Amino acid sequence: QAKNAGRNTIRFFDPQMQSVLTQRATLESELRAAIDNSEFQLHYQPQVDSTGTIIGAEALIRWNHPVRGIIYPDQFIPLSEQTGLIEPLGQWALEQACRQLMRWSEDDRTQNLILAVNVSARQFHQDNFVEQVRQAISHSGASINHLKLEMTETMILGDVSGAITKMKQLQSMGIGFSLDDFGTGYSSLSYLTQLPLEQVKIDRSFIHNLPHNENNATVVQTIISLTRSLGLKVIAEGVETEAQRQFLNQHGCLHCQGYLFSRPVPIERFEQLLQLHDNHSQGYS
Ligand code: C2E
Ligand code: MG
Ligand code: MG
Ligand code: MG
């Protein structure tokens, strides 16, 4: 045992390893402070139908770091997962999204918008997750039918039946589920039939080289026809070009999200996009 401890100690003082650990520790303590200091913000990326009408948005978290500026989720969500900080952070995002849905419900022009919120594995697996969602909704007064939760396949691994039970409880409250990044994970087809899903979201890695990449074109067509024949809705993420949008629409994927329409933007800008769209139903530029 002493020998093992010795080895670990030596490895711990490897200077490179040490600096990674220091960076992580710094990030972790900054994240904790950032939660207390409300340094987080949701950005909203439009989701559109085949006419280009905005039907909703995905809420994407950003960290407005006082020194480093905007930090994107790939740089802090994984560590938040590992340290458990995702629990307060995820709850914050959910509450924030519900407050936004509440505000939208007060205006005819926005009351039908759907807001999709990403949920991480650890957040979902908390014992009281269903209760947390219920509270976020009831505290905000948001309409439950307009909240969508984005899950990934990897989240469900390990305890499929437990996940299904939880999802069904939330579904019975009126919440819809979208299976995010579809095609990149395990893509077990049994999930598609077992989980109470409303929608499947085709991962952007299949979209970016459409329509010229024949393999991806085939994969995308297959996902679309599979999901549709199972009675599920389908949306594509990462749509950047008109050619991609056309390919998707022609093959029956009518809902799209991506830089072609807009990057994720602060709420003020998102609401401008809604108005712009009202005025000129042709485009966004
Ligand atoms: P995701 O849920 O798959 O979100 C889509 C990502 O694709 C977003 O990155 C978005 O900005 C980016 N994207 C959208 N359109 C395009 C496009 O046309 N081209 C390209 N290249 N990228 C596009 P973002 O905002 O950096 O978020 C990364 C990931 O972080 C998300 O992936 C999601 O897994 C996670 N995340 C974001 N917000 C939250 C949150 O509130 N809670 C949790 N648990 N995870 C979150
Ligand atoms: Mg997502
Ligand atoms: Mg995604
Ligand atoms: Mg993703």
Automatic annotation (TrEMBL):
List residues of the EAL domain.
24-278
Highest taxon of source: Bacteria
Q: What is this protein called?
A: cyclic-guanylate-specific phosphodiesterase
Source organism of this protein record: Gynuella sunshinyii YC6258
Q: What is the lineage of its organism?
A: Bacteria, Pseudomonadati, Pseudomonadota, Gammaproteobacteria, Oceanospirillales
